[in-house]
Amino acid sequence: MNRKHRDYRAEYLRRIERGFARGLSRSQARGHPKPHEPTVRPVKSPEKSALVYDARLEAGLHALRSGKSLTESARSIHVSPERLRRYAVRTRMVRRRGRKWIVGRDRRRRQMLLYSNGEAIVVTVRPDAAHEIGAYMSAVGRFLASNDPAFLAPFRRKWITDTSGMTHSFETDPNTLYELEGTGAETFEDVYRTVA
């Protein structure tokens, strides 16, 4: 059977020309847009156009922050370097200096579960308040496991301020915490989200 010989160079040039005719850049026409360029493929749902928190890609950012190259970081979490680069740029945590990616401080807001005034609430906070909530919820977990109220002592009469300016005090009453834990509400991990 005699197969027709394909001219890959001509096909590539036609692909680029069609892209230019549609107003695309060369990288978009190739199907590999740069991190700051929108993708050419149609987005299936509106949620996919927004930056969605991805625990695996966050682990890649952590590897990048620890000094690994982008390729090594992507390999460590089993994704392509292009995918990790796009996620990193969209988080606005990285910038390019020469041939190296520099990871800055994470200034993104977080949605977190908090026990406050007898209720389990979800608050949106800045990173410093998120750190305090994480320490508090960890202390609550240790208290519930050990029944030792000493874990709650550092959080008595303390509060955090959310992004809208409202203050929320930490719930430290042991009986209330047992009740809140027994309601079967969402867990800390279910609620936690990074908000761009």
Could you name the key traits of this structure?
single chain; 196 residues; alpha+beta; Arc Repressor Mutant, subunit A; 2 domains; three-stranded antiparallel sheet; two-stranded antiparallel sheet; 7 strands; 43% helix; elongated
**Which residues sit in consecutive blocks of at least 5 with pLDDT less than 50?**
43-49
Radius of gyration: 24 Å
Biggest beta sheet attributes? 3 strands, antiparallel
Overall, the morphology is elongated
Helix content: 40-55%
Tell me the strand percentage band.
Answer: 15-25%
Distinct helical segment count: 9
Straight-line N-to-C gap: 57 Å
Structural class: alpha+beta
Q: What would you note in describing this structure?
A:
- The chain is α+β, with helices and mostly antiparallel strands and about 200 residues long.
- The chain has helices spanning about 10-20, 25-30, 45-50, 55-65, 70-75, 80-90, 125-145, 175-180, 190; strands at about 95, 100-105, 110-115, 120-125, 160, 165-170, 195.
- Strand 1 and strand 2 form a beta hairpin.
- The chain is elongated.
- The termini are far apart.
Report a brief summary of the structure.
With 196 residues, the protein is an alpha+beta fold. 43% of the residues lie in helices and 16% in strands. The protein has two domains: 50-103, Arc Repressor Mutant, subunit A (Orthogonal Bundle), CATH 1.10.10; 109-195, no CATH class.
